[in-house]
Every structure is written in C-alpha cells, then in structure tokens.
Design brief:
Elements: H1 11-24, E1 38-48, E2 58-63, E3 69-75, E4 80-86, E5 95-97, E6 121-126, E7 132-137, H2 142-147, E8 152-157, E9 166-175, H3 190-193, E10 202-205, E11 213-215, E12 220-227, E13 234-238, E14 244-248, E15 251-256, E16 262-265, E17 270-276, E18 284-289, E19 297-304, E20 334-343, E21 352-353, E22 356-357, H4 362-367, E23 375-377, E24 394-396, E25 401-408, E26 414-418, E27 423-428, E28 431-432, E29 438-439, E30 441-444, E31 449-455, E32 460-466, H5 469-473, E33 477-482
Parallel strand pairs: 1-4, 3-8, 9-12, 11-19, 20-25, 24-33
Antiparallel strand pairs: 1-2, 4-6, 5-7, 7-8, 9-10, 12-17, 13-16, 13-18, 14-15, 14-17, 18-19, 20-23, 21-22, 25-31, 26-30, 26-32, 27-28, 27-29, 27-31, 32-33
Domain Plastocyanin-like: 55-159, 169-288, 384-482
Organism: Rhizobium sullae (Rhizobium hedysari)
Keywords: Metal-binding, Oxidoreductase, Plasmid
C-alpha cells in the first residue's frame, strides 16, 4: 500500500529508508512539510483496485485519478489556493470539511457558490486558521459522488513540528461492490434512507483492502483516522495497544484513552491518536471494528518488523497538541436553541417538506411520493444537497455565543455536521463531556440529548445536517444564519 505522503514509496520502504536517517538527524521521520499552499484537483472517472490485487478493478469517480484523492497539505495561517476542475458528466462542488473558511468557499451549490458545471473550474481561496486533520468531498449529488469515490484528506500543519516518529493517515471508507468489482447501483434507496443508510460490504484503508500495516517496535506514531463512509459507523479496537486520543475533528483535546479502548468514528469524523508501539518484533496485532453487534471484522493488522526496537524505553514526554485559535463561548451571555431530530423508520412522528408540514404519519411522509422527505429537524425537512433561497431555521448576531441542544428523537444514529464552525461539546444526556472536546461532527445515538456551544463569528448561511448521506438527502438538513 502506498504511503499517504507521496503516493510512490511503500510504507515499508519509507520506514527502512527514513526512520534511521531522519531520527539520526534529530528530526521526526515522515514529517513531510507542505512546499506549497496551491493545488489543482481534477474530478473525473477512473479505475481502482479497491478489493485487493487479485480482485477486479472498480470504476470510480476520483480526484486526480486516485482513491482517495491526493493528500492536500496546507500550512496554518497561510493563504491557500485550490483550483478544482470538473471532468465529470454532471455538476459538482468541493466542501472543505471542518475548515473554518469564508462562506463563499464552503462548497454548497446554490447556497454559497454556483455548481461547477462539467468542463468548468472553480477556485477556492482561504486561509486555514486551525491546524489539524480535515477532508474534502463533494456537496453536489453527494450521496452518489462520495459513494463512488470522491474524497480526500487535508492536513493543515502545525507551525512547529510535532515530536513523533511517524505521522500516518488512514482514510477509511466502505463500498457496496458486486462480484464483478463494480459499485452496486441503487443509490437513494428509500427504505435504506429511512433507516441506517447505505452501508457497504467492503472496507478500505487509503483506498485498498488492508491486510497489514508495517510498524516498528519502540516508535511513537501519530495516527490520523478519517471516516469517509456514507453511513458506516466504526468502533476501532487496537489489540494489546493503548491509543491516546489527542484531537477530535481536527481540534486538540486533553489527551485521554478512549472509553473501553474503542475509538468511535461516525461518518465524516476524524480522530487523531498517539500509539506507542510496544508490541513484540515480528508479531502481528489486529485492528478490529466491532461497532455493529455480531458483525465485527478485522480492518488490518499492525505488523511489527523484525528490526530491533527504535528505542529501549517508551517516550516519557507527554503528547499535547497546541490549541487552535477557537473563541470560547461566554456562558453568561449564551443564547440557547433546541433542535430536535425527527423521522425515520420506527421513529413515529410527522414529516415536513419545504412547503410546510406533511399531514400524514411517518410511513406516508417517508414513502408517499418519490423523493419525499424521511427526516426532519424541528418539524421541517430540507432535501438534497443545498440550493438557493434556503430559509434559515435560526439567525444569530455575529459574535454571539450560541448553545444548541440537539435532541435525537429517532431510533437511529446521526453524525450532525455544522459547516463553518467548530462546536464545544458541553454535555451528553445531562452528563458533562470531559477532555475539552471540540467537534464539527457530533455523533448522536438514538434518544441522545447533546448540548454544544460556539461563538457565531463566521458570517453567512451555514448548513447543519446529518452526515449519513442518505439522511441528509432525504430531509435531515437545515440552515443557520450568522448575520
């Protein structure tokens, strides 16, 4: 499997060639610095061998011909210029997920920019204020375009090098493949849309089914996890290893071990962990996803090389990332709003459309007309990807501190994503959330009540939606305005 840094050297070759040389020079290996904040990215059809070297190729839609698209490395606080060319046969856009950027660069067709027509280009220009792990994907026909492969990672580098031996990226995704290797049709299945969404039968790590990931005893690794799936929630467990969470959705948190040792990743979420490789040389240790009851599988194995440990004792230095310049909401001057998630199969309740309330029950709302809504927020549904003249559900004065109480009244999980801002997660079901966690995508279990807060300092109309893409497309979406 190719390294995420240059797409050519294997991870094994990178370890052998780079670790000793760079560490001998006193520098962390694999800390590849961005040499430019300018990129040209082409969206087009391509082919990729997702399921393994002995399996048929898959027709995909890809950025620059690879799945995932090439890694975009930017520098914190420095202007970036990204030219996106559309060679697909349909409109597209790019959403720079999690980056606090100007509204006109947010990639929502109709709402923040005109769609990029086939054969045309669009220039995205912004200065990323935060270092961290982000990603990019379409926000036009997003269920199918993301489901056919259009996704890539963005790393915004800290101003100073972070003291690790290696900095690894795992962009995880799942696919629904036929025996022929082709992606199964049937996007926008109404029954799936009202339940858990389109979950695939093949899971890839950086665009391939992974058997092993080579590591070396004694090294300290920063592992950036990105869930680029349409709907699959993951709970990763590292056999006989103790990952420490150091950032969530690109924002540094208080370092802590995840609950029960499982790293929970909803669609679109990112988690940075530090792994001290204290396994035995020559051994393999499984990385297992066991989120769904009875459906656990091995994502990959950490395969230790036979080489002697990189160091004789684990590093004593704590790993704490520098904070990003996020404004803290003022508890004494916070305005509070309730947003209730409704709908779905087994959810009960009523549905709404852009024209107002739907008078029937849930099954009528879900199945009554083709393309009708299956989900709602506060009794109203917005379907699709975004378009002009979407009326905001809430309007905030710029600079105000805002608290949102998100209430999941459905029987399903929802990763709720807010564009243009990061939210401090204050409480879950009445219990304070520890470790100073900021997120742009908050995973909510059925019946959860989660309180988040942020300073509404980024002007414009911003999407708030579920990142199970079927749920977004079928109604679980709204607009918040900062004026």
């Amino acid at each position: 499997m190719s390294t995420e840094f240059n797409g050519r050297m294997s991870r094994r070759g990178f370890l052998q060639a780079g670790a000793g040389l760079l560490l001998a020079a006193g520098l962390p290996s694999s800390q590849v610095r961005a040499d430019s904040n300018e990129y040209r990215i082409v969206a087009a059809q391509a082919r990729s061998r997702l399921a393994g070297p002995d399996r048929p190729e898959t027709g995909v839609w890809a950025y620059d011909g690879t799945v995932p698209g090439r890694l975009v490395r930017l520098r914190q606080g420095e202007p970036a210029r990204l030219v996106v060319e559309n060679r697909l046969d349909e409109d597209t856009t790019v959403h720079w997920h999690g980056i606090r950027l100007p509204n006109a660069m947010d990639g929502v067709p109709g709402l923040t920019q005109p769609p990029i027509r086939s054969g045309e280009s669009f220039v995205y220009e912004f200065t990323p204020p935060d270092a961290g792990t982000f990603w990019y994907h379409p926000h036009a026909n997003s269920l199918e375009q993301l489901g056919r492969g259009l996704a890539g990672a963005v790393i915004v580098e800290e101003r100073d090098l972070v003291a690790v031996d290696r900095d690894l990226l795992w962009l995880l995704a799942d696919w629904r493949l036929r025996e022929t290797g082709e992606i199964a049709s049937g996007f926008s299945n109404r029954m799936e849309a009202a339940m858990s969404g389109r979950i695939g039968n093949t899971v890839t790590l950086n665009g391939e089914v992974s058997e092993t990931e080579p590591v070396r005893a004694g090294e300290r690794v920063r592992l950036r996890l990105v869930n680029g799936s349409l709907a699959r929630i993951m709970a990763l467990r590292f056999e006989e290893h103790n990952p420490v969470v150091v950032a969530i959705d690109g924002q540094p948190c208080d370092p802590h071990e995840p609950e029960a040792g499982r790293i929970l990743l909803g669609p679109a979420m990112r988690v940075d962990v530090v792994l001290d490789m204290q396994g035995e040389a020559g051994r393999r240790y499984g990385v297992v996803d066991d989120f769904y009851d009875g459906l656990s599988y091995q994502l990959t194995e950490l395969a230790y090389e036979e080489a002697p440990p990189l160091r004789s004792h684990p590093l004593d230095a704590p790993f704490v990332l520098p904070r990003n310049p996020l404004p803290d909401p003022d508890p004494a001057a916070t305005e509070r709003h309730d947003l209730t998630l409704q709908g779905g199969m087994m959810g009960g309740g009523m549905m709404a459309g852009m024209g107002g309330m739907n008078g029937g029950g849930m099954m009528q709302g879900m199945m009554g007309t083709a393309g009708g809504p299956a989900w709602a927020i506060n009794g109203m549904s917005m379907t699709g990807d975004g378009h002009a003249d979407m009326k905001p559900a809430l309007t905030f004065q710029r600079g105000r501190s805002v608290a949102l109480i998100l209430r999941n009244q459905t029987a399903w999980w929802h990763p709720m994503h807010l564009h243009g801002h990061s939210m401090r997660v204050l409480s879950r079901n009445g219990e304070p959330v520890p470790h100073r966690q900021w997120q742009d995508t908050v995973l909510m279990a059925p019946k959860d009540v989660v309180e988040v807060a942020f300073v509404a300092d980024n002007p414009g109309d911003w999407m708030l939606h579920c990142h199970v893409m079927d749920h977004q497309m079928s109604g679980m979406m709204t607009v918040l305005r900062v004026a």
